[in-house]
Automatic annotation (TrEMBL):
<dbReference type="InterPro" id="IPR025979">
    <property type="entry name" value="ChrR-like_cupin_dom"/>
</dbReference>
<dbReference type="InterPro" id="IPR014710">
    <property type="entry name" value="RmlC-like_jellyroll"/>
</dbReference>
<dbReference type="Pfam" id="PF12973">
    <property type="entry name" value="Cupin_7"/>
</dbReference>
<dbReference type="InterPro" id="IPR011051">
    <property type="entry name" value="RmlC_Cupin_sf"/>
</dbReference>
<feature type="domain" description="ChrR-like cupin">
    <location>
        <begin position="14"/>
        <end position="115"/>
    </location>
</feature>
<protein>
    <submittedName>
        <fullName>ChrR Cupin-like domain protein</fullName>
    </submittedName>
</protein>
Length: 229
């Protein structure tokens, strides 16, 4: 993994980032900025970022050779496939193309080049219209599945206040705090906090005094590659 850019590139280690504390970095497109969480590669990269579109900004049409996955944190993301408000979860598989824009502005959590390159499954969900179900093995935790295949699982969880449970970390886990706070290893992650732990990590979480809403992805850290530059 000898790449020109490496941010949090050791996937055998636990990593925490408070994304609100990371400076915005300009992207190649005017009006679009990003906060990198992890990155392997140059402009074409395996990357996890928070990306902000200013009102009226847009990208030109492009192909996602390695796939793109994102969750709308604020505002409305738009492309030729529709308008995607806060709470939308989108998977654009390898070889798909679109023309991203945002008339009113938006902020999204984005993951690039982290798909099976043979995957052709599109996902477009408005999670605000879907119901969570209580996990029968974890009282006070309510789960909304978003995607599952042989490589990974993606879901949203709502944790009641002060609830504590272990989380299975086979294949590694990433967590992004959408609301509230979560405590792990004595460290509190507020809204927009991001945690990544490796395969087999002993992951134990406790929700804060107001509970927490979490975006969680698991299993995928067994498949870390760098796109050809």
């Amino acid at each position: 993994m000898d790449t020109a850019v490496k941010i949090n590139g050791d996937f055998s280690k636990r990593v925490v980032e408070l994304s609100d504390d990371i400076p915005w970095v300009e992207s190649p497109m005017k009006g679009v900025e990003r906060r990198p969480l992890d990155r392997l590669g140059e402009e074409v990269a395996r990357a996890t970022s928070v990306v902000r579109f200013s009102p009226g900004s847009h990208f030109s049409e492009h192909i996602h050779t390695g796939g793109e996955e994102f969750f709308v944190l604020e505002g409305v993301f738009q492309d030729e496939h529709g308008d995607f408000p806060t709470g939308s979860y989108i998977r654009n598989p390898p070889q798909s193309k679109h023309t991203p824009a945002s008339e009113e502005g938006c902020t999204i959590l984005v993951k690039l080049w982290q798909f099976d390159l043979q995957d052709r499954t599109h996902v477009r969900l408005d999670t605000t219209t879907l119901e969570h179900s209580e996990d029968p093995e974890r009282k006070g935790v309510f789960v909304l599945p978003l995607f599952k295949d042989e490589r990974e699982c993606v879901f949203i969880e709502r944790w009641n206040a002060k609830v504590s449970h272990s989380v299975e970390a086979t294949g590694g886990v990433e967590i992004f705090v959408l609301e509230g706070t979560i405590i792990e290893a004595g460290e509190e992650l507020p809204r927009n906090g991001w945690l990544r732990v490796p395969d087999g990590y002993d992951l134990k979480l406790r929700a804060g005094d107001e509970g927490a809403k979490l975006w969680i992805k698991s299993g995928h850290l067994r498949y870390v590659t760098v796109p050809n530059q």
